[in-house]
Inverse folding.
């Protein structure tokens, strides 16, 4: 699977090139167009679909529901990434969601937080309401990021979640009232516009 993006960062569209019989998973409403013969199978939950290429291969064009950037994050098979729950546009079958990844369980406790963990190999296609930016942190270098602007960070970056104001309202589900402290080395991906409308 290969990905080419266009119209970024304002109105990103991703063309996902699929080999013979190769498939990609995305929300059904994100399909803009496809080459003839691509088959869509609905998975029945949250309107997720799997788009499978025919024997000669094919392509699908995927577009997020709103304006913003489309960013292919290449997973190398050795390092996983924690990704904002609302940021994933599409993923191949070679990239999996790790539902019970221990460090996120330690971060959020029993609650379902605003991050999911992904691992495997291949392009994880992300979407952001603004252009994607990054902080390349050196060893021991620190940065604080608000959850509404966080896109993703790799396993090798240290992360701590804390309250912005301990007496104010907080939500592990949305990130309201919280911030994340990151320590390098590593790269933290952010977006230049908040997810909160």
């Amino acid at each position: 699977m290969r990905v080419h993006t266009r119209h970024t960062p304002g109105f990103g569209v991703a063309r996902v090139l699929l080999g013979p019989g190769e498939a990609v998973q995305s929300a059904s409403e994100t399909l803009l167009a496809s080459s003839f013969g691509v088959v869509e199978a609905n998975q029945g939950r949250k309107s997720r679909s799997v788009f499978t290429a025919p024997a000669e291969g094919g392509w699908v064009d995927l577009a997020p529901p709103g304006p913003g950037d489309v960013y292919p994050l290449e997973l190398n098979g050795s390092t996983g990434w924690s990704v904002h729950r609302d940021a994933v546009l599409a993923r191949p079958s070679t990239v999996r969601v790790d539902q019970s990844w221990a460090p996120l369980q330690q971060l959020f406790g029993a609650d379902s937080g605003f991050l999911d963990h992904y691992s495997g190999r291949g392009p994880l296609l992300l979407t952001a309401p603004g252009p994607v930016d990054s902080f390349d942190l050196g060893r021991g270098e620190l940065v604080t990021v608000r959850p509404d602007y966080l896109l993703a960070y790799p396993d090798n970056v240290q992360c701590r979640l804390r309250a912005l104001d301990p007496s104010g309202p907080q939500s592990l589900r949305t990130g309201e009232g919280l911030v994340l402290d990151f320590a390098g080395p590593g790269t933290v991906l952010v977006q230049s516009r908040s997810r909160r409308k």
In short: The helical segments are 102-108. The chain has one domain: 2-191. The chain has a mean pLDDT of 93. The radius of gyration is 17 Å.
